[in-house]
Amino acid sequence: MVVLSNQTTYPISMNFSRVVTNVGNDTSSYQAHLENIPDGMKIRVEPSTLTFTQKNQKQSFVVSVEIDKEVPRIIYCFLKWIDQHGHIVSSPIAAANHDAPKSFF
């Protein structure tokens, strides 16, 4: 998930809707964990727990990202879903302001 903005007023807010599919064979419950959230970035995950009861079952969630002040050119953190079996699904979340290098885009 990437927040790209050329705004100069804050806060900047974006919502990302995602759908995930259980590729495992058994019941699993995943908890959302956020890691390395930098100053100036706020993140909310709803729901924060996804429970699957069968293979190929789909679940949806929303990640809300808010940048509440001018940040360095590029900042990032990680959303990790961790289940009771130790499986981890990791997604980066990045934000870039108007000064970010063009190669980032």
Concise account of the structure shown:
The chain is mostly beta strands and 105 residues long.
Structural write-up:
By secondary structure, the protein is mainly β. The chain has a single domain (2-104), classed as Immunoglobulin-like (Sandwich), CATH 2.60.40.2310. 0% of the residues lie in helices and 57% in strands. It has no helices and 8 strands. A 5-stranded mixed sheet has the order 1-8-7-3-5, with no helix packed on it. A hairpin with a 4-residue loop joins β7 and β8. The protein is elongated. The two termini are 13 Å apart. The mean pLDDT is 86. This is Subtilisin-like protease fibronectin type-III domain-containing protein. Residues 9-94 form the Subtilisin-like protease fibronectin type-III domain. It comes from Quercus lobata. It holds the Pfam family fn3_6.
* Average pLDDT for all residues: 86
Taking all Cα atoms into account, the compactness measure Rg is 16 Å
Question: Strand fraction band?
Answer: over 45%
Question: Main sheet, how many strands, which sense, barrel?
Answer: 5 strands, mixed
**CATH topology descriptor:** Immunoglobulin-like
Ranges where pLDDT stays below 50 over 5 or more residues in a row are: none
Tally of distinct domains: 1
